[in-house]
Amino acid sequence: MRIHLGTDHAGLDFSRHLFEHLSAAGHEVVDHGPTTYDPIDDYPSFCINAALAVVADQRAGVEALGIVFGGSGNGEQIAANKVAGARAALVWSESTALLARQHNDANLIAIGARQHTVDEAVAFIDTFIAEPFSYEERHVRRIAQLAEYEASGAIAGRYVGADVVTDSSAPVAE
Fold it and tell me: Residues 103, 131, 139, 148: which is the catalytic one?
């Protein structure tokens, strides 16, 4: 499998360790940066590039997943999810890694390098890579709705809009 990595300075040591771990496990690993430590680097381009590569590979029929790192993983997940076709899940346990694949067919995960040890991150990643999507109808349906919204701004048969109905007569807590 091809595995794409993207990080910032907080995840640089993790990505180096993972490059070795995943390569030793037989995966083709592509590191989208950074390559050197810079405490004020900007993660968006690294994570977006990793997500773009995952989506392009999958569309070309190449088995691929991605992993993005940062201090918390939050910004990195947000960046990856800006790419059409990317489904990046924030992972903080083996259970969330498993469910990201089983239920959401996530093609990337984000991990907070300041939140976990390298050994914990390796366990999350190995779980994520090994777990297939369940293909249960409800999960397939929900993922299709997300893709439909991403492509068109709508979900057939569902209300989606900025003018959310609220009860203006309800008391407001002060």
Answer: 103
